[in-house]
Amino acid sequence: VLDQGSHLRPLHQAHDSKEGVSDIKYSPNNRFLAVATFDTWIDLYNVDKGYSRMARCSGHSATVRGLDWSTDSSMVQTASADLELLLWNARTGKQITLPQRDAAWATYTVALGFSVMGIFPPFADGTEINSVDRSKDQKFIVTADDHGMVKMFNYPCVVEDAPHRAYRGHSSHVMGVRFNADDSLRSDHICH
């Protein structure tokens, strides 16, 4: 973890993962840090207590590909390479098994869930979407896929084979996509 000030300096170093880190995000209240790993677990750290590990979320059977915090910093949602979406209590690290369909998420970067079920093309097996990002204003969701495409949908995207704009520019797999900090690099006239 690096200091975000004028000088890049380590804030904390840990070696809690054997296989490496796949995603990392601070909670909206900046009090916690979630770290998803290729080891199939998520470590939760307490920033206020010197990045001490407060919980390990174990339950995935494949690499954790992404995570998002709820807006109130009480839950974490995670998606794994085997297309499993799990929810976690951010204080205890225990899995939440009750439906949380109406939960509000600070970010949406996992390719699974009710609000993004329309991003997959017909006959998709779920593995061709490599990256997802919801705009900060929560109007759009953008995807990067195995076919060299970046696609933009209205958010939420809950209809099958949802209308979208497709942008080609890559010759092969697009592995990552993100809106910039103020959403200024997007089209305001998409999917109307």
From TrEMBL:
Which keywords appear in this protein's UniProt record, sorted alphabetically? Repeat, WD repeat
- For whether the record's keyword set contains Kinase, the answer is no
Q: Does the keyword Transmembrane apply?
A: no
One Pfam match, given by its short name, reads Beta-prop_EML_2
Region of interest (Disordered), ranges: 1-22
Q: Which spans of this chain does UniProt mark as WD repeats?
A: 57-98
Top-level taxon in the UniProt lineage: Eukaryota
Q: Which PROSITE patterns match?
A: WD_REPEATS_2, WD_REPEATS_REGION
Instruction: Look up the coiled coil feature and give its residue ranges.
Output: none
Q: Which residues form the EML-like second beta-propeller domain?
A: 6-184
Composition skew (Basic and acidic residues), residue ranges: 13-22
Q: Which Gene Ontology MF annotations are present?
A: microtubule binding
- Name assigned to this protein: WD_REPEATS_REGION domain-containing protein
